[in-house]
Specification:
The complex is a heterodimer of chains A (about 350) and B (about 600).
Chain A: H1 3-17, E1 26-32, H2 39-54, E2 59-64, H3 72-77, E3 88-92, H4 93-99, H5 115-135, E4 138-148, E5 150-153, H6 160-165, E6 167-171, H7 175-183, E7 187-191, H8 196-201, E8 209-212, H9 214-219, E9 228-231, E10 236-244, H10 245-250, H11 256-287, E11 291-294, H12 297-312, H13 321-338
Parallel strand pairs in A: 1-2, 1-3, 6-7, 9-11
Antiparallel strand pairs in A: 3-10, 4-10, 5-8, 5-9
Helix pairs in contact in A: 2-11, 5-13
Chain B: H1 2-35, H2 43-65, H3 79-114, E1 117-119, E2 122-123, H4 124-128, H5 130-144, H6 150-168, H7 179-190, H8 195-209, H9 215-225, H10 234-246, H11 250-262, H12 268-284, H13 289-304, H14 309-319, H15 330-339, H16 344-373, H17 382-391, H18 393-407, H19 413-431, H20 438-471, H21 474-485, H22 489-506, H23 509-526, H24 531-545, H25 553-562, H26 566-589, H27 591-600
Antiparallel strand pairs in B: 1-2
The chains are: A alpha/beta (about 350), B mainly alpha (about 600).
C-alpha cells in the first residue's frame, strides 16, 4: 500500500467518523491542569452549570481537572481536528504559547508592573490574539489569572547569581525557551508542569527551583519541599479557556451568546480574585513554614537591569516581533495615561 | 535474499545508532556546556525522542526474532492445539498491531498539520513516524511467524486487514459492550498473543466503545515515551551495560576474584556463584540473561568442587533473579518511573538490606550443602586474591563509579546510565577486547534493543489502558472493594503477596510492574504503606514468581540451559523457593529492613 493510499484511507475514516448532526445537544470535554477543588476548578464547574441551564441542556460540559488528561501539550494534541478527544481547555501561558507564540508576550519577565497594567494590555491585544487563535482552529472564550509568578526554591535564593545556579524548572515542549535560559547563564530543566511537585519532593529531583504563582504552590504543596520564596513578581501568569472551532460551530448559533456570557462571568471572577489569592496563599504558606525573601534594593536593580537585557533577545525569537511590539506599545500607552 | 539480509542489518544499525545517541547526547551536553553556555540545542528532547525510536525499533526487532514478551501460559499448551493456538495468538497480535499502526499514521498526519517542532526545526511528526513504522513491522512479522505454513500465515495476514479496518471504522464499536472483546483478547493472550497486544488491544477497543479514535492511545504513548520526568533512557542504557558485560570474559574474571575471596570458606564457591549471578541480574533485569550467560560457566565449576548436581541447578536457577533488589537494578528503576512519586535513589538504598537478606538466605543453603556433601575448599591465598581483584578491577569499579555519580548528585539517573554504558563499552571494546569489532557491538546492541523494545512497547500501550481505567474510576472501586473486605494492613499485605506471586508466575517482571503498580499505588496509600517499601515488596515477590511452578520463567530457562526436564529443575529449586518465600515474608512484615537505612541517612 502506498503512503498516499494509506493517507487517503485514514482521511476517509476520519471523514466517515465526523458526526453530521448540527444543532443537537453537544457535550464538551474540558481539560485543565488546575487542581481538583481549586477556585479555578469550581469556576469551571459553575460555568458548565450555567451553560447547561441557559441552553436548556443543549450544551453540557465535563471538566477533567488536575491534569488527569495529561500535560498541556498532550491535551492540546487531544483537541486537534482528527482527534477531537477534548473540545475545550483551560490553558496557562505555556500551553497557549504552544498553540501560538504571540501569547509568550505575557510571559516576558518584569514586563508588567501591576495587575491593572497587565490587564489593560491583555484586553487591548485580545482581538489580535483571537485572530491568531482562529487561524489555528481555536476560539478564545475568556481570560483568567493565577497570580504573579514568584520563585520557589529548596535553598534560599537572594541574588541573580543564586537563581542562575539553581536547577530551574522550565516548561517542556519549547526548546527555544531552554536555549534562551541557557544562553543567559541559567540551568533550565524542561519538564511537564504536572511533574514540578514530585521533582521538588525527591531528594535528588531534577529541579530545585520552580517559578510559580503562590496559589498553585499552596494547592500542590510545593512549599513543603521548596520552603523558600523569593518575592520577585516575575510576571502575572495568565490563562485562557479555549474551545476548538469545530466544537464552537456545533453549538446552536442561538446558544452561543449565552455560552460566551457565562465564560465572561467567570473571567471577571478569575481576574478579580487573583490579587487576593496571591496574598492569602502567601499568608497561609508562611504560617506553615514558608520563608519569604524580599529582594534588597541592590539585588532588585540587578534583576531589573539584567532582565532588560535578556528580554530584548526574546523579540523575534520567543515572542514574534509584531506581538512584542504591540504589547510594548500598549503598555507604554498605559503608563503615559498614568503619569 | 541478499537485499533482505541487508535490510535487517540496516534495521539493527539504525537501532544501534539511536542507542548510541541516547548514550552520548546527555554526556556531550555536560561536556559542551563547560565550553559554551548554550550546550547542544535540543539535546534533552532529542534524547527523549531517540528513546522512543529505540523502543519501537527494538520491538520490531523483537517481533522479527520471535522475542516479544508473552504470557508464560503459551508454553504449556498441549501439542495437539499448539499449532492452532499459535495462529490465533499471532493473528490477534497482528490485528492489534495494525490498529496501533493506523493510530500511529493518524498521529503523524495530525502532527504534520500542526507543524510543531522538537528543536532546531526538526518537526515532531518525523519522530512520530516511529509508531506506524514500528507497529507496521510488528504486524507483518507476527503474521509471518504465526504458522510454519502459508495457509496459517494467510489467516494472520488477513487479520492485519481486519485490524486496520476496525481502527478506521472505530465508530462501529461506540456504545457496544466491551466485555466480550476483553475476554476474547485475554483468551488470545493465554494462547500466546504478545502481552503488548493484550494490554493495547483492550485499551484500544475500550477507547472505541467510548467513541474515541485510534489516535488517542498513541498520543498517550508518545507523551509517556518522551516524558522528561520519566526519562526512560536509563532502561536501555543499563540493559546495554549488562549485555556488554555478559560478552566474553567478564564473568570468568569476576568468578576468579570472588572465589579467591570466598573459596576458602565452606560453601564459598556457592556464595561466589550466587553473588556473581546477582551482579549480572542487576543490569539485565532477571530476564534470564543471567542463567543463559552464566549457567554454562558456573554449573561445571560447582560440580567440579563436589556439589550435588541437583543442588547446583537449584542454586543457579534461584540466583538468576537475586540481583533485582540491588542498586542500579533495572526493575527498581522501572518501578520508580511508573510510581512517579518516589526517588529512584531511595529505592536503590531501600533495596540494599532486603537484597542482602535474600542473597544471604541462598548463601546459607549453599553453606549447609557444602558441609553436607563435603565440597572442596580452596586454600586462602592473598596473592590469588590480589591477582583476581586486579584482573577484575574494571568490572568491579563499574558499579562504584556509577553509584558515586548518582548518589553523589553529580548525574541524574539517565546520565548515570549513560556513564555506565559508555564505561562498559570502552572496557569491553578497547581494554579487554571481549567485543572485538563494531560488527559485534551492533550484534550486542541488537540483542539489547530487542529486549528493551519488548518492555517499552508494553509501557507505551499500557499508559492508554491505565488512563482509561483511571477515567472509569477503576482504582477507586478497587480501593472501596478491598477496604470493605480486608480490614487490617497485615491481611492486605498477605493478599498482596499472594496476588503478586500469581502475577509473577504468568508475567515477566517488567510487564507486571507496568500493569499492576498504577492499580496498587492508591491501595498502598489507603493502607499507609510507604512507596519504597511497596516497591521492594513488589520486586521481591516477583523475584519469587520467577521460581514458582508451574510457569516460573527461571524454571523454563534453566530447563533449557541445563537440558533437564522442567519437573526436575522445579524439584531442585524447591528448597530455594521455600527459603526465599520466608525472606519475602520478612521483607513484607518488617518495613524496617527496607526503611531503616533510609531513616539512618535521613532520607525518609
Amino acid at each position: 500500500m502506498s503512503v498516499r493510499k494509506a493517507v487517503a484511507i485514514v482521511l476517509a475514516g476520519v471523514a466517515l467518523a465526523a458526526p453530521i448532526s448540527l444543532g443537537a445537544a453537544v457535550t464538551l470535554k474540558l481539560a485543565t491542569q488546575a487542581p481538583v477543588n481549586s477556585s479555578w476548578h469550581k469556576a469551571l464547574l459553575d460555568m458548565g452549570a450555567e451553560w447547561d441551564q441557559k441552553t436548556s441542556g443543549r450544551v453540557k460540559l465535563t471538566v477533567y481537572a488536575g491534569g488527569t488528561q495529561g500535560s498541556e501539550d498532550a491535551t492540546i494534541r487531544m483537541m486537534r481536528p482528527g482527534v477531537d478527544q477534548l473540545q475545550a481547555n483551560l490553558l496557562m501561558l505555556p500551553g497557549l504559547g504552544h498553540i501560538d507564540d504571540a501569547f509568550n508576550a505575557f510571559g516576558i519577565p518584569f514586563f508588567f508592573e501591576s495587575d491593572a497594567e497587565g490587564e489593560y494590555v491583555l484586553q487591548k491585544l485580545t482581538p489580535f490574539l483571537e485572530q491568531r487563535l482562529d487561524a489555528k482552529g481555536f476560539k478564545l472564550l475568556c481570560w483568567g489569572s493565577a497570580g504573579w509568578v514568584q520563585l520557589f526554591s529548596k535553598k534560599p535564593l537572594a541574588t541573580l547569581a543564586d537563581v542562575k545556579n539553581a536547577k530551574l524548572y522550565t516548561n517542556q515542549g519549547d526548546d527555544r525557551m531552554s536555549q534562551w535560559y541557557k544562553a543567559n547563564g541559567f540551568h533550565p530543566v524542561a519538564l511537564a508542569a504536572g511533574d514540578i511537585p514530585a521533582q521538588l519532593k525527591l531528594s535528588t529531583g531534577l529541579i530545585d527551583a520552580a517559578p510559580s504563582p503562590p496559589y498553585p504552590a499552596l494547592l500542590l504543596q510545593m512549599f513543603r519541599d521548596a520552603k523558600y520564596m523569593l518575592d520577585v513578581r516575575v510576571a502575572p501568569l495568565y490563562g485562557a479557556i479555549v474551545m476548538t472551532n469545530d466544537a464552537w460551530n456545533k453549538i446552536d448559533a442561538a446558544d452561543r451568546p449565552a455560552v460566551l456570557a457565562a465564560a465572561k462571568t467567570i473571567e471577571k471572577r478569575l481576574l478579580g480574585e487573583a490579587p487576593k489569592l496571591d496574598a492569602d496563599s502567601i499568608a497561609t504558606m508562611k504560617s506553615r513554614g514558608l520563608t519569604v525573601t524580599t529582594l534588597d534594593p541592590k539585588a532588585a536593580t540587578e534583576f531589573r537591569a539584567a532582565a532588560e537585557n535578556f528580554v530584548k533577545t526574546m523579540r523575534g525569537n520567543i515572542v514574534p516581533a509584531d506581538a512584542y511590539d504591540a504589547a510594548l506599545k500598549e503598555r507604554d500607552a498605559y503608563r503615559k495615561t498614568r503619569k | 535474499m541478499r537485499a533482505r539480509a541487508l535490510a535487517l542489518r540496516a534495521e539493527n544499525v539504525i537501532a544501534t545508532a539511536a542507542l548510541g545517541g541516547i548514550m552520548l547526547l546527555p554526556l556531550a551536553e555536560i561536556a559542551v556546556r563547560r565550553i559554551v553556555s548554550t550546550g547542544i540545542p535540543g539535546s534533552a528532547p532529542f534524547t527523549l525522542n531517540l528513546t522512543l525510536w529505540v523502543g519501537l525499533l527494538g520491538a520490531a526487532i523483537a517481533a522479527r526474532e520471535g522475542k516479544l514478551l508473552t504470557l508464560a501460559t503459551g508454553e504449556f499448551l498441549p501439542a495437539r492445539i499448539s499449532g492452532l493456538a499459535h495462529i490465533i495468538g499471532g493473528s490477534v497480535g497482528a490485528a492489534i498491531a495494525a490498529m496501533f499502526m493506523i493510530g500511529g499514521l493518524s498521529l503523524v498526519l495530525t502532527e504534520r498539520a500542526a507543524g510543531d517542532h522538537i528543536a532546531l526545526n526538526v518537526p515532531v511528526w518525523v519522530s512520530t513516524l516511529a509508531f506506524p513504522i514500528g507497529f507496521g513491522l510488528i504486524a507483518v512479522r507476527l503474521a509471518l511467524r504465526a504458522a510454519p505454513h502459508w495457509r496459517g500465515r494467510a489467516i494472520a495476514l488477513v487479520s492485519i486487514v481486519v485490524g486496520a479496518f476496525a481502527a478506521l471504522r472505530f465508530e462501529l464499536f461506540e456504545g457496544h459492550a466491551l466485555l466480550p472483546w476483553v475476554v476474547g483478547i485475554i483468551v488470545a493472550g493465554v494462547l500466546g498473543a504478545p502481552i503488548f497486544s493484550l494490554l493495547g488491544g483492550i485499551a484500544m477497543i475500550a477507547f472505541f466503545t467510548d467513541g474515541s479514535r485510534p489516535i488517542v492511545p498513541l498520543i498517550k504513548a508518545y507523551e509517556e515515551l518522551t516524558s522528561p520526568s520519566a526519562n526512560l533512557a536509563a532502561i536501555p542504557l543499563f540493559t546495554l551495560t549488562g549485555f556488554l558485560l555478559a560478552e566474553g570474559g567478564a564473568s570468568t574474571r569476576l568468578l576468579r576474584a570472588l572465589r579467591a575471596l570466598f573459596g576458602w570458606a565452606p560453601g564459598g564457591t556457592a556464595v561466589a556463584a550466587a553473588t556473581l549471578c546477582a551482579f549480572f541480574t542487576l543490569f539485565t533485569g532477571g530476564s534470564g540473561v543471567t542463567i543463559l550467560a552464566l549457567g554454562g560457566l558456573l554449573l561445571p565449576a560447582l560440580l567440579k568442587e563436589g556439589y550435588r548436581e541437583r543442588f547446583a541447578i537449584g542454586l543457579l536457577t534461584a540466583s538468576g533473579s537475586l540481583g533485582l533488589l540491588f542498586p542500579l537494578s533495572v526493575p527498581l528503576i522501572l518501578y520508580g518511573i511508573v510510581a512517579q512519586n518516589v526517588a529512584i535513589e531511595d529505592l536503590f538504598i531501600g533495596g540494599i538490606v532486603p537484597g542482602v537478606l535474600m542473597l544471604a538466605l541462598v548463601a546459607a543453603l549453599g553453606i549447609r550443602e557444602a558441609i553436607r556433601s563435603g565440597a572442596k575448599r580452596a586454600p586462602f591465598r592473598l596473592s590469588e586474591v590480589a591477582a583476581g581483584l586486579w584482573e577484575a578491577k574494571w568490572e568491579m569499579l563499574l558499579p562504584i563509579v556509577v553509584l558515586w555519580a548518582l548518589l553523589g548528585g553529580y548525574a541524574t539517573t539517565s546520565e548515570s546510565a549513560a556513564i555506565a554504558a559508555l564505561y562498559a563499552l570502552i572496557v569491553q571494546r578497547f581494554i579487554h577486547r571481549d567485543v572485538p569489532s563494531f560488527k559485534e557491538i551492533v550484534r550486542v546492541a541488537g540483542d539489547c534493543v530487542a529486549l528493551v523494545g519488548g518492555v517499552l512497547i508494553i509501557l507505551a500501550v499500557a499508559v492508554g489502558l491505565t488512563n482509561y481505567l483511571v477515567n472509569a474510576q477503576v482504582p477507586m472501586q478497587l480501593i472501596e472493594w478491598t477496604q470493605a473486605h480486608i480490614q487490617s494492613k497485615a491481611l492486605f499485605l498477605l493478599a498482596l503477596n499472594v496476588f503478586l506471586l500469581l502475577v509473577g508466575t504468568v508475567m515477566d517482571i517488567f510487564s507486571a510492574i507496568v500493569v499492576v503498580v498504577p492499580l496498587i499505588l492508591p491501595l498502598a496509600d489507603a493502607y499507609m504503606i510507604g512507596y519504597v517499601h511497596l516497591g521492594v515488596i513488589f520486586i521481591a515477590n516477583l523475584e519469587l514468581g520467577y521460581l514458582h511452578p508451574p510457569l516460573g520463567l527461571n524454571l523454563l530457562l534453566a530447563s533449557y540451559r541445563f537440558k533437564k526436564p522442567v519437573l526436575e529443575v522445579t524439584w531442585a529449586t524447591l528448597p530455594m523457593l521455600g527459603i526465599l518465600a520466608a525472606g519475602v515474608l520478612l521483607i513484607t512484615y518488617v518495613p524496617l529492613l527496607t526503611e531503616g537505612l533510609l531513616r539512618v541517612m535521613g532520607r525518609l
